[in-house]
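Handout, section B. The chain below has 260 residues.
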Amino acid sequence: MTFPQRYVALGDSFTEGVGDWDPGSPNGVRGWADRVAEQLILADASWGYANLAIRGKKMRQILDEQVDAALALEPTLVTLYAGANDILRPRIDIDRLMFHYDDGIGRLRDAGADVVLFTGFDTAGSAVFGKTRGRTAVYNEWVREIADRREATIVDYWRLREFQDWRYWDVDRMHMSTAGHTLMAARVLEAMKASHAIDLPELDARPALRRMEQLRADAQWAREYVTPWVGRRLRGVSSGDALTAKYPAPVHPHRASARA
């Protein structure tokens, strides 16, 4: 089927949809990009949607493996978030990395695609990931500068203060939950100035934990999520090594006509 308008989503776990678990979707996840595509298709059935994002990918992998594949699909719209997995590494040359990022964005824009970019999330509230906050701030300034120069739309994740509420996050505290992905889809469409019919989620009340209860919960989280995450990085493996892209060619996702 030929789609005159084609939306291609590029990136890592954030764009693949990790945290928005859905056994009926490819790779077992749905995510904000799927929800954005569904809204675009509901408004105009000429849209097709491809999602090339794979969890665990670093920026150079995303640029080297996904940009050419996206260009081959002749996209009219591209969303791209890359760099979070690099920022979490022990060493990073942000300036050099962003030179390659700028080149990739330039290629997409030169091909005629509208491009949506993201700043990084403000990790001030995380005892573990808060240590990378300074790196993320530098990365964000690069993203804003490149977005200005390349005339790209920007979703300023850093300034979306709603996401400081941890009820928008999955139990691993690394990925957004279904509620978070739903909210992000609405914010992306709003940044694009596109109408949508997404119902924003109502958050369940979360009882306050006593200090010892919180310490036990933090220790369990570290055992179940942080330790395996660190172990994979020490071994040089990724949770996405055995996965392929959810939608490698433009389609109408099966949920597009079913729900917002």
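Note. The longest strand covers residues 5-11. Compare this with the example in section A.
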